[in-house]
Amino acid sequence: MLDNFDLYIRALSIDWGRIYKNSYLRKISSIASLDELVFHNAVTFFVGENGSGKSTLLEAIAVGYGFNPEGGTKNYNFSTFDSHSELCDALTLSKGYKKANWGYFLRAESFYNVATAEEEYGRLSKYPQHFHEHSHGESFLQLAQTNFKPNGLYILDEPEAALSPQRQLTLLLEIARCVKEGSQFIIATHSPILLGFPDAEILNFDDELRPCRYEDTESYIITKMFVNDRGRVLRQLMENDEVE
């Protein structure tokens, strides 16, 4: 496991003077309340509802470290849509004393474009890849396994979107392997499986940004409630829907 001085990204700060006064970022509670964030663990999870700001901050971290906004390594320079926010220009990263040997920004929403770029780059090397020949989940996991290497920085945005529960367990094992080999992960997720990673720090983006126990995440609470008594949960949902 890494300590804070060994982390490739140790902290971040936001210069709010570089963000417009009418910016939508000021309306996102988790980000608007944030001036500085310190990372403590080799694995950090961002959790929260859609629109809570977790992917916005994750993307800004990735761009700040030098990754392509759509994903890939720091060497990728393709662009299909310029979507990154002004937060990227206002954010400063505090890096550790060691430089990561490798890194990857992997996001589910732009996976097709990244996989296409991987195949194009692969044609120029001795090791061509054929991600589009596999199912979405298989190719997503293959891309992760191909690019997860020791002493690396990996930023993942909702990787569970492409993966079955079994594949999520496989990804969890890949993360564990890389952490043992000196890697750092920052992950935005809704997955109660991934969130169960031991010794990870979980940051909740609902309202003001705050640390959160695994058992207090909505992903865990709702999944547990449904699995333990799905009949009652479904009845309540359907009864409420009929009332509305």
Task: Give the SSE layout.
Elements: E1 9-14, H1 29-32, E2 36-38, E3 43-47, H2 54-65, H3 87-90, E4 91-95, E5 102-107, H4 111-123, H5 136-147, E6 152-157, H6 165-180, E7 184-188, H7 192-195, E8 201-204, E9 210-211, H8 218-228, H9 230-243
Parallel strand pairs: 3-7, 3-8, 5-6, 6-7
Antiparallel strand pairs: 1-2, 1-4, 8-9
Task: Give an account of the 3D structure.
It comes from Ruminococcus albus SY3. Residues 40-215 form the AAA+ ATPase domain. This protein has helices spanning 29-32, 54-65, 87-90, 111-123, 136-147, 165-180, 192-195, 218-228, 230-243, and strands spanning 9-14, 36-38, 43-47, 91-95, 102-107, 152-157, 184-188, 201-204, 210-211. The protein is α/β, with parallel strands linked by helices. It has a single domain (4-114, 148-212), classed as Rossmann fold (3-Layer(aba) Sandwich). Helix 6 (165-180) links the parallel strand 6 (152-157) and strand 7 (184-188). The N and C termini lie far apart (50 Å).
